[in-house]
Write a structure and sequence with these properties.
Rossmann fold; OB fold (Dihydrolipoamide Acetyltransferase, E2P); 3 domains; eight-stranded mixed sheet; single chain; 8 helices; 387 residues; alpha/beta
Length: 387
């Protein structure tokens, strides 16, 4: 048996084999003992596995709603209140690993821990017995598909639409091997857009959706980037808005503009986005503002336009998981803008970047938002004030 020690950043739990090598588990909680497990990856210094039989179950273990929970939301086995505490502890640990000591951050949630996702992608499974297509997810750690009849983390309109697509495929006697997946997105008012991705064909462009965020209307493509959990995202935006206290605001990695346009549309605002499709939607969202002469958009990588960083600004950062390019960090240290607002989906790279800014900045606020309940994903917000 292997005693499970703790959660680690990334969402697995840590145990140790007899030879001392680390083993990272899905489906096991701290304090539990793993009797049997399936290995999914072997590296020189560690092993990854899925626990299949445990003893001494944790008091924080709960029964998952979905049979295929390991594929979509592996923390369905964790009591939701405990999940929030664990995420707070992981943020503190990640920052400590980068030499930054912070207090346990406040964590924000709307406590709607199921039916929150507004986007889902399903695999298609071919049932050789019935000769029919079924919805499926990929088994964690493998390419094997697991057919599903229910899923509890996406909005119900999405699952209904996916089931309808599969029914129509079966009525037309289609085969699963012709298709890559089904991608669907749902707006807050229940409209669904998206559809099938065919194998060996370019992804289709689906009709745009629209949503209201902090009272403002935004359009976006189902294929592109848009926040998965809009109600909790609005909570983050309301916090960010409290720290916009300069006339000039620069929004880097801006996507379709939902941060800058929600919290600073009344300021001199510059938004930077490198993806041409997201930039097109960003420009559309700016054009919807009746008086937008003080708002400008730039199609470029943020690291290529660091000359726009100035001392009398608030700079908003919402980079991809890899974090900020070093040229952005260097320019921030050189120009020392008044306030830096850093929202991140990866606290590890966020802590790495912030560590490089602390000669010129101090951390005013740390707040965590649970955008993705029952998953290990963490969204973390830092407010940095110039010293």
């Amino acid at each position: 048996m292997i005693k499970v020690e703790k959660f680690i950043p990334g969402g697995q739990t840590l145990g140790r084999l007899e030879d001392g090598k680390k083993i990272f588990f899905w489906n096991a909680l701290p304090g539990e003992e793993v009797i049997d497990y399936d290995i999914t990856k072997v590296k020189s210094h560690y092993v990854e596995a899925i626990a299949t039989n445990i003893s001494n179950p944790s008091p924080f273990r709960t029964n998952p709603k979905d049979q295929c929970y390991l594929s979509t939301s592996p923390w369905q086995i964790v009591d939701y209140g405990h999940e929030l505490s664990v995420k707070q502890e992981l943020v503190v640990e990640v920052f400590r690993e980068h030499g930054i000591i912070i207090d346990s951050p406040e964590i924000a949630t709307d406590f709607k821990d199921y039916r929150y996702r507004n986007k889902m992608e399903y695999a298609l499974y071919w049932n050789n017995e019935t000769k029919m297509i079924e919805l499926a997810f990929h088994q964690r750690g493998s390419h094997r598909k697991i057919p599903i009849t229910r899923s509890s983390i996406e909005r119900p309109e999405i699952l209904i639409a996916a089931t309808t697509i599969v029914r129509r495929l079966n009525e037309a006697h289609e085969e699963a091997r012709s298709y890559q997946s089904i991608l669907l997105r749902c707006s807050q008012d229940g409209n669904v857009s998206g559809g099938l991705y065919k194998n060996h064909e370019p992804h289709p462009v689906f009709p745009n959706l629209s949503d209201t965020i902090l009272g403002y209307q935004y359009t976006y493509s189902p294929n592109g980037f848009f926040q998965i959990n809009v109600p909790v995202y609005e909570m983050a935006l309301q916090t960010i808005k409290q720290y916009i206290n300069t006339d000039k605001v620069l929004d880097l990695y801006s996507g379709v503009g939902t941060i800058g346009l929600s919290v600073a549309r009344d300021r001199t605002l510059t938004l930077v986005e490198c993806d041409k499709f997201a930039y097109g939607e960003l420009q559309n969202n700016i054009d919807q503002i009746s008086n937008h002469h003080h708002i400008s958009a730039i199609l470029a990588k943020s690291e290529d336009v660091v000359s726009y960083i100035e001392p009398d600004q608030t700079v908003i950062l919402d980079p991809p998981r890899a974090g900020c390019d070093s040229r952005v960090i260097n320019k921030l240290n050189e120009q020392k803008p008044h306030t830096i607002i850093y929202l991140s989906c990866n606290p590890a790279t966020q802590a790495r970047d912030v560590r490089l800014l602390l000669d010129n900045y101090e951390i005013e606020t740390v707040k965590t938002f649970n955008f993705f309940p029952h998953t290990p994903h963490i969204e973390n917000l830092l407010i940095l004030k110039r010293q």
